[in-house]
Amino acid sequence: MKHIVKILTFLVAITAVWISLLQTAMIPQSHTWLLPLYLIVSLGCYGLLMVGVGLMQFPTCPQEAVLLQQDVIEAKQFLKHNGVDVGSD
Q1: Cα angle at 37 between 41 and 48, to 5 degrees?
Q2: Does the pLDDT of residue 89 top 60, yes or no?
Q3: CB atoms near residue 30 (< 10 Å)
Q4: CB-based contacts of 36: which residues, under 8 Å, 6+ apart?
Q5: Do 39 and 14 contact (CB within 8 A), yes or no?
Q6: What is the C-alpha to C-alpha distance for residues 43 and 34, in angstroms, rounded to an integer?
Q7: What does the pLDDT look like over 17-45, one tens digit per residue?
Q8: How far, in Å, CA of 73 to CA of 77, rounded?
C-alpha cells in the first residue's frame, strides 16, 4: 500500500471521529473545535521526539571518519597544487 494512501486513510478516519464528536454532545463543543489544533501540536511533538531519538541513536563510524579525514587532506593537497587557496589547516 502506498504511503500516501495510508496518510489519507488516517486523515479521513480522524476527520470522521472529529465530525462525530461535533455531532454528539459527548465532549463540550468548545473543546471539540480545538481537537485539530491538539492533533497538529501532538504530531509536531512526536516528530521532534523521533528526530531526537534518531540523533541519540546515530551510529558512530570511527573507520569511516579516518577515511574521510584522509580524503579531505588529499583534496586540500590537490587544490593547493592547482593554485586554489583552501584556508588554514
Answers
A1: 10
A2: no
A3: 7
A4: 18
A5: yes
A6: 14
A7: 888 877 887 777 777 778 888 888 998 99
A8: 6
The share of the chain scoring above pLDDT 70, in percent, equals 97
Grid cell in block for residue 30? 468548545
Would you call 76 exposed, middle or buried from its count of C-beta atoms within 10 A (0-12, 13-18, 19+)?
Answer: middle
74: Cβ–Cβ under 8 A, 6 or more apart, which residues? none
- What distance in Å separates the CA atoms of residue 45 and residue 68, rounded to the nearest whole number? 35
- DSSP letters for 20-50: HHHHSSSS-HHHHTTHHHHHHHHHHHHHHHH
Provide the Cα torsion 31, 35, 41, 47; round to 10°: 150
Q: What's the DSSP call for residue 71?
A: H
Is 78 strand, coil or helix? helix
